[in-house]
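A quick aside before the break. I want you to see a complete sequence-to-structure record at least once, exactly as it would be stored in a machine-readable document. Don't worry about memorizing anything.
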Amino acid sequence: MYRFLLTPRWWGINVFVLLAIPFCVFMGSWQLSRFEARVQDHRDASERAVSDREEAARPLAELLPVDQDTSGRRVTATGRYGKQLLVPDRELDGKRGFYVLTLLRTGSGRALPVVRGWLPGTADPARAPAPPSGEVTVTGALQASETPGDNGVSTAGGLPAGQTAAISSASLVNLVPYRVYDAWVTLDKGDSGMTAVPAAAPANSGLDLKAFQNLGYTGEWFVFAGFVVFMWFRLLRREVEFARDAALGLVPEEETAGV
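That is the input. The structure line, written in tokens, reads:
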């Protein structure tokens, strides 16, 4: 009754099944490991955020370039404030508002974007406090340049003069007359009565949509593996029933010859 398993057709089916199941299990396990890695990164980032607030600030040059390890670390920089910009449509504590971003011109010849604080409402230069004059030393959390579309960063263009959608060297290069660090700092304490902007978690370290996509893909691959097994048993059962019917003479000779 099971001689059909030795036919070329069933050899092909069996080889496909024997290859497909381990592949699906491997891919599902890999996606699960990606999700678990993101969960661990999230835990590490949360623990590091607590320790970063307690550790002493280090000079800016020691923590550049910004990566997952240095993002969120407390830094200090000295210079003179220069051009000031507004970053509209930024949410804090469930309210819409804007950041006040001022470029700190350092002795290196480059400027460091410094978020001095957040204000509620529509971005208005008249409401933004002027930066302190003279040489100042700032202390805050180091942040990587933003990418439009990530973490709520607006992709809108055509903003009024004096505004920028993203805090990044690529966005600021055409808005300020000096070289800019590929990083920025949010002050520990808001300047001039403004609300301090909390440091964001490093990229790819949070339980974001991508993390749960990995979890979803895990389920899909294991479902595929189960579907392959289900279809193999279904084909086997149908073939056995066909062979049994043929043995009982319930199948026309033309169909038997075709099989």
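Two observations worth writing down. The first strand starts at residue 58 and ends at 59. The two ends are 14 Å apart (CA to CA). We'll return to this after the break.
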